Amino acid sequence: MKLRFLGKNSTPGDSPTLYASDQGTYVIQGWKVYANELLMQLDVPEGETIIEVPPELFEHLTKDGHPSGRIRTFAGPIKLVTEQGTCVLQGPQMHDPEALSQMRMPDYETCIEVPKSSIVALLEEDSSGPHHSRSA
């Protein structure tokens, strides 16, 4: 799987990152969730994992042709929004060796792969786009 880097939201020691794959998916790298109170709220099937990212990470979706990267609805794969305003996402944990070799990931981070359509469905639409009607 080939990845295309879309962007990251970094502070020293933190590096949530967003990639587009050549498989019609987004690969989202974020902080591993260890907090028991968060994990107890979720049903995490085998093969899936939970990550946490800042919502600003999705602003990089504009680099994949979307008019907005603002989240308008918090639904799957976003499972929770924390008190700090970060998004907790659930999805299949990435195991593709080719994709992982293209990433720099500290031990306290992991990544999930989700269909592009599941992320695009969460975005605000740009009201100035071609479907915007004007009054005569």
Mass-distribution shape: globular
Order of helices and strands: EEEHEEEHEH
Instruction: Provide the β-strand percentage band.
Output: 25-35%
Q: What is the rounded Rg?
A: 15 Å
Helix content: 10-25%
The total strand number stands at 7
Mean pLDDT: 87
Our measurement of the CA-to-CA distance between the termini, rounded to an integer number of angstroms, reads: 49 Å
**Major sheet, described briefly?**
7 strands, antiparallel
Kindly report the oligomeric state of this protein. single chain
**Contiguous uncertain segments of 5+ residues:** 127-136
Structural class: mainly beta
In DSSP terms (H or I, runs of 4 or more residues), the helix count works out at: 3
How does this structure look, described?
With 136 residues, the protein is mainly beta. It has helices spanning 36-39, 97-101, 116-120; strands spanning 3-8, 17-21, 25-32, 48-53, 78-81, 87-92, 109-115. Strands 1, 2, 3, 4, 5, 6 and 7 form a 7-stranded antiparallel sheet that branches. Strand 2 and strand 3 (25-32) form a beta hairpin. The termini are far apart.
Using brief descriptors, characterize the structure shown.
136 residues; 7-stranded antiparallel beta sheet; 7 strands; mainly beta; disordered C terminus
Structure described in brief:
The chain has 136 residues and is mainly beta. It has three helices and seven strands.
